[in-house]
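Cross-check.
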Amino acid sequence: MAKNGTAPTQERETPAETADDGFKALLDRGRSVADQLPDVVDDARAALDAAQVQLDLLSDRGVIAAVGFAAGIATGLFLAGAPRFILAVSMIPLAVTTRAALTRGVRLSRLVN
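Predicted model, tokenized:
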């Protein structure tokens, strides 16, 4: 059956209106994420505190092993060409374990050798 062109035409949005709608949706989603950000920060702080408690329970050799493991993971990710964000996240356990080792008085020579 052939169409004769008498069907009502639909008005299409202009590209500017489409972009404006997309921008408004992006802003709404960004605001909802920003509203949840304090909860995320509190959860991350609680997780780091729990990790510090677990590190405090380890012996000196256990802390040295944890530093070596965290350094090995970070080095492996770097050599594998991981994205910078992943590298930054992998440095968090390294920083936490190194801090735990240094606050215990473990010398750097024991960490390196």
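The chain has four helices and no strands. Residues 62-113 form one domain. Passed to J.P. for a second look.
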